[in-house]
Amino acid sequence: MHKYKEAILYIIFIIIGFAYSIMTIRPAIIKVIDIEKGIREKSVQVADLERKRETLKAAEMEKNTFSDQVKNIYKSEASGADAESSFTVVFDDVINMAKYNGIKIYSIEYVYNPPEDEFIKSAADKINVCSLNMQIIADYSDLESFLKELYKYPYLININKIELTPYPKNKKILMSILQLKLYSFK
Questions:
Q1: CATH classification code of 74-185
Q2: Is the pTM of this model over 0.90?
Q3: N or C: which end of the chain has fewer CB within 10 A?
């Protein structure tokens, strides 16, 4: 019996030790679980905030893109200039952009204040319009860089028509007809 008393005593100490361990560890486990729940909630909040930030960033980019697309109409420094002289700076810029990008200009036709233009119909007394019909020779990459330069130009230039025809002897070279509309204030 004495032999069993010791075994029973050891079992009781083990049970008491186990119960004590559970009582002291349980609050720590509950604390860890609460921290994990807090982390999950914060992760969801962070994901929501990231989504909102991306939405705001996209809206800002769209706003900037739109504001970049709004261009001014050129105003000649010589006030009261005729239609032809009001475009001299813009003509020079377009021709220099073409030369800079390796484009050969075959011919240029100028039509001042075409009657079918909407600006002329509505504000002929305030705005000059020049329809610029260019026949150019360029390869694909030069034409691409020229069109990008026209897009970046700070003043309004509309590209109305582009006709691309590959040169019969060398398909990498394009013979193109480019119709631009330039605008300036009177």
A1: 3.30.70.60
A2: no
A3: N
